[in-house]
Amino acid sequence: MPSAKFSELFDRHAIATHDKQLRLLQLVGESDWQADLDAGTLTFENGVQFAVEVLGSEAEEDHSFVWSWANTASDFSASVTRSARELKAIGERLALPELSQGMFDLGELNGTSIAMLAVGLLKADGYYRAPFPGGALFLLIPDAPAARALNDISPFHVQTRITEALCRVSLDNIPAVGAYLSYKGYALNYRGRTLRAVSPEGEELVLEFDDSDRLIGMMSQSQQSQPSSWRERLWPWGRSRQARA
Prior knowledge:
Distance between the termini: 18 Å
Number of domains: 2
Shape: globular
Number of strands: 12
Strand order of the largest sheet: 6-5-4-8-7
């Protein structure tokens, strides 16, 4: 079972990382790739290239994860393990064994969850899962200007990403959604079970939570003017059902 601190931090970064990953997907699609770990580059057949660092690797047989700085057999250079070592320091400071132990049993976690948190903590632009027989290598993409250029702060986009993430991953809804909206530059105003979020362009998004802190509704200003039957289709769980946490 992950540590309580890991779960708390993961919740706060998960939706933003999900958003970042989909921006990267827009750039590379299903292109084949090639990694040069000596040079620290990840190149796709469509011509897109990123500078990368090695976070670590996940082994399928024993469901373990080993950080690149602890993988002496691979002899990674200091330049491609910099971010992993920075995460180690964060883990030691916050008493996070998932970040500070060189090798550990993933338990309920997986390499993807480790990489997602790494992206959030280091304010990176994404990660890439590079599979190999018996496991996968996780590469951090610290800086991807072309991906950042695809950033969308519209209420419709934000609603879509929140809905996707909450359908796929178990998250503590209020901190997860609030952190994502803050990442997108929204000003937040909590009142009771209602969160009003205003985008940098002045568009308002209203979110409602139930007594279990689960998101049960989202509506932007433009949607408020639509018929109720149309509005209900925007939220897949409907008004009478609790959102999946």
